[in-house]
Design brief:
Distance between the termini: 60 Å
Radius of gyration: 20 Å
Order of helices and strands: HHHEEHEHEHEHEHE
Bound molecules: zinc ion
Structural class: alpha/beta
Strand order of the largest sheet: 4-3-5-6-7
Largest sheet: 5 strands, mixed
Helix content: 40-55%
C-alpha cells in the first residue's frame, strides 16, 4: 500500500539519491519542502538550476567556478609555480580558508580507486601533467590520507619525479581516512608546513 501520494514518493525518491541523505531524512525533507511557502520553493529551484547552468571547471585548475578562470588562478599575486593537488573543490576551499597558502591548485575531481574501478584516466590527471609544461617549481600532493588518497599520491609522485620538478606530500598529521574539509585550519597548515619530498 502506498502511504504517500505519487508526487511525494517521487520527491522522496529524488532526495534519497543525494549523498548523505537516507530514506528517513529524504522523507523529512520532502514534507518540509511541500510545506514551504511557494516563493521559497521557487528560489530554491532557481538556485539549483542557476548553479547547474553556470558553474563550470576553471580552465587552469579545474575547480568549480562561475567564470572561465577561477579567482585563485586569476590572481597574479599568487605563486603560479607551486601547485597543490587536491581531490575536490571542497578541499581547495578548506586550504583557502587558512589564508596562508600562496600557490595555486589542481583539482583532480576524485581519487584512484581500483576497488571502485576508478583509474588514472577517470580523474583530471593528464590535465595536471599538461600543466607541468609551465614554469613549475613544486607540486604539493594534498590528497586525503584514505587508501584512495594515498594510492593517488603515490601514482602522481612516480609520474612527476622523472621530470625533475620537486614533488612533496603533505604531512600525515591529517587523521587517516580524514576528509580534508573537516580538518581544522591549524592541522591543515601543520600538514602543509611539514610536507616531505617524495
Ligand atoms: Zn583555477
Amino acid at each position: 500500500m502506498d502511504l504517500y501520494s505519487g508526487h511525494i514518493n517521487r520527491l522522496i525518491d529524488e532526495l534519497s539519491g543525494l549523498p548523505g541523505i537516507g530514506s528517513k531524512s529524504a522523507q523529512r525533507l520532502a514534507f518540509h519542502l511541500v510545506n514551504l511557502p511557494e516563493g521559497k520553493v521557487k528560489r530554491l529551484v532557481k538556485a539549483i538550476t542557476d548553479a547547474k547552468e553556470n558553474v563550470r571547471y576553471c580552465r587552469e585548475c579545474f575547480t568549480l567556478t562561475d567564470s572561465e578562470v577561477c579567482p585563485v588562478c586569476a590572481n597574479t599575486k599568487r605563486d603560479h609555480g607551486t601547485i597543490m593537488v587536491v581531490e575536490n573543490t571542497r578541499d581547495l576551499a578548506a586550504y583557502e580558508k587558512t589564508g596562508k597558502y600562496e600557490g595555486i591548485y589542481h583539482v583532480l575531481h576524485g581519487a584512484i580507486s581500483p576497488m571502485l574501478g576508478i583509474g588514472p584516466g577517470d580523474i583530471k590527471l593528464k590535465e595536471l601533467i599538461a600543466r607541468l609544461q609551465n614554469d613549475i617549481t613544486e607540486v604539493i600532493i594534498a590528497t586525503n590520507s584514505s587508501l584512495e588518497g594515498e594510492t593517488t599520491a603515490m601514482y602522481i609522485g612516480k609520474l612527476i619525479k622523472p621530470t625533475g620538478i620537486k614533488v612533496s606530500r603533505i604531512a600525515s598529521g591529517v587523521p587517516v581516512g580524514g576528509d580534508l574539509e573537516y580538518i581544522d585550519e591549524v592541522t591543515l597548515l601543520r600538514a602543509l608546513e611539514g610536507r616531505v619530498e617524495m
